Every structure is written in C-alpha cells, then in structure tokens.
Amino acid sequence: MTHTSEPRGLRAELETLTTEAFRPELADVDRLPTLGIARLMNGEDATVAAAVAERLPAIAAAIDAVAERMARGGRLVYAGAGTAGRLGVLDASECPPTFNTSPGQVVGLIAGGPGALVTSVEGAEDSAELAAADLDALELTADDTVVGVSASGRTPYAVGAVTHARARGALTVGLACNAGSPLAAAAGHGIEVVVGPELLTGSTRLKAGTAQKLVLNMISTITMIRLGKTYGNLMVDVRASNEKLRARSRRIVALATGAADADVERALAAADGEVKNAILVLLADVDGPTAARLLDGADGHLRAALAASAGRP
C-alpha cells in the first residue's frame, strides 16, 4: 500500500518554491571527494551576502521602524519554526549580554516552545493558532514589533504570527527566502532574500539559514545602535556577567577614553561597573551619580550625554 505523508496540494506547492528546487547537476555530489563538496558548499555560501545586499533598502526601512517603536518602550519579537525559529531565539538570547537589554525586550518564539530548540515538535509549524496564542501571552502593544521568519515564506506559524500581530496594531516584518511569499505579503515590511536552490534539495538550514542569520544580525545590531547601545563601534552597554566580559568592559572604557588602567578601574568602580557611565565619568570629569543623571536625561545615548555635560554651567 502506498502511503503519502503530505497532501498532494502541499507537495505541488513546495515544487514551485525556489528554496525547494532540485538541481540535477548536483545529483552525484555524494560521489565527490570531501574537499570537492566543501568547495561546492563554500561557493554556494559566497552568494548569500550578495542576495542580502539586494534587499538592503527594505532591511534598513524595517530597522528604522523597529527602532522608532523600541525607543518608545516596545519589544522586538521573532517568530518562526524549525531552523528559522532557532535563529530568532539565538538572536534574542544574545541581546542581553551584548546590549544589556532588559528581560523580555527582545523575544524569540519558536513553534512548539523551548523544547523545539533541540527536538522537532510534530505539527507545531503548521499552526497559526499556536502563533496567536504565543503572542497573546506577551500582551502585544502597538509599540511592539513581530518579525516572522520562514525560508519558504509559507510556514503557517510564521504567517499566523505576523497576521495576528498586525491585527493587534503591532509593527510586522516578514523575512523569507522566496519571492512572492505569503509571509512578506502579510507583513507591513516584507524582506525576501532569494538565495536560490540549496546544495541539498530543500535543506534550508544552509543558504537560507545563513541569509536569515545575516538579516537578523542587522535587525538587532543596527536597532541597538540607533537606541544608543553603542558608542562608535564599541559595545558600551555590554553586561559584564563573567570574567571575559569584565575584561572586555575594561578594554572598552580604555579604548573610548584613552585612560590608564588605574583610572579605568576607578571609573568603573564609581559607575558600579556600567561601561557607559564609566566612560562619561572619565570624558566629562563627573562623579558616578552625575554620569547616571546625564545618561538618564539623554535616554541612554552617550554622545548626547557628553554634549549635555559640555553645556553644563
């Protein structure tokens, strides 16, 4: 007896997707030497940055909209299934130590919940209702942003998340790797990075996953730059939660100020370990509480705080 695991309509739909296309010229890839396969993969990967480059205006427009809302206290929420969901969770989890974001300020939702990070959750990606429930638990506001991530651009969880968020008045971004995707169409900002067929047919953890990682890096990093989480290219909001990050904190203060090690230590002590405050202590020649007040008045933007300190009586 023949058993078909997916509806015939879905199979036909997948066959129309660029990310699912079969490449007959690679049908014997398994017969190549390992170095030959590695060269093929490396060549494929080299095309991803160019595909992202074609979408930079759309990416920048989305980032400006995200930053505007986050400056008002909104949150950045990624929603996806499988690899796309894992990449969103990864990006969100790296924001607190890198940019000292508050808990819940950047959130990664994956279809099936945290367990789906390591184990496939059967059917979770097919549920738009599950996405709506996950978002309702966050009590979305109009200042929040939901970024749906899906290589195919048709995953019900991602499309459902964007559709539900838009109905709640939130900003929405749809990141896909196929042109004309339902996900991009459902979102206020559609970003379609078309990387072409994969080396392994339909294995979108490869080029599509790399493209998604590059774009998510841009969304979070540039948004945080816009929010004043950096000073130049220094991570001045880094959270010194371990010895490596404490060493990095000292180095950042030294790079930003040119101060001697002893002065750096003194400033960090006066600023309770806050890098941004310590830089202000040194560059503006103020005490710790004054540095904190200046930064509060500048919404955390170090350059603005420095300008304000220069204009003090």
Automatic annotation (TrEMBL):
Highest taxon of the lineage: Bacteria
Keywords: Carbohydrate metabolism, Lyase
Reaction(s) the record says it catalyses: N-acetyl-D-muramate 6-phosphate + H2O = N-acetyl-D-glucosamine 6-phosphate + (R)-lactate
EC number, as in UniProt: 4.2.1.126
Any single Pfam family the record assigns to this protein: GKRP_SIS_N
Biochemical pathway: Cell wall biogenesis; Amino-sugar metabolism; N-acetylmuramate degradation; Amino-sugar metabolism; 1,6-anhydro-N-acetylmuramate degradation
HAMAP family: MurQ (MF_00068)
Assembly: Homodimer.
Name of protein: N-acetylmuramic acid 6-phosphate etherase
Gene that this polypeptide is encoded by: murQ
